[in-house]
Amino acid sequence: MKINDHVYCKSIGIYSSQLTKRKSYAIIEVDLQNVRIRNDEDKIRWYSKFYFDLNSEPEIVLINIDEEILDEESDTVEVTIEFSNGERYWVVFTTPKYLDQVLNEETYFSVFHY
Predict the structure, then answer these.
(1) Per DSSP, what are the bridge partners of residue 93?
(2) Cα separation, 28 vs 33, whole angstroms
(3) Which residues of the chain have pLDDT under 70?
(4) What's the pLDDT at 114?
(5) What does pTM read for this prediction?
(6) What is the pLDDT of residue 112?
(7) CA–CA gap between residue 74 and residue 23 (Å, rounded)
(8) DSSP 31-95
(9) pLDDT value at residue 3
């Protein structure tokens, strides 16, 4: 990161009124651990480099529930999440009741990956 580079906010942390996630900011000054930018309040401030990246994070463009929910009280369901860069991730959601039932029968919970 160097002066005049544009960095993207990857986390707002405690700065919810000062930074916007995924927004681009121009670096005014830089040191080993921090960048100085003009924030959302139009003030020039120092922030840790931790909050920024030279690359923009992709946005979620689609969330699809891939399976029918058979029992709202006790079930699992696979969900596909698609991002603006074309990447896809699959996650499994479960209800606490279902997880409790499984853990009463087994000492672990594992999901089969296709």
Answers:
(1) 77
(2) 14
(3) 109, 111-114
(4) 52
(5) 0.58
(6) 63
(7) 39
(8) -SSEEEEE-TTS-EEEEEGGGEESSPPPPEEEEEE-S--S-SSS-EEEEEEEETTS-EEEEEEE-
(9) 92
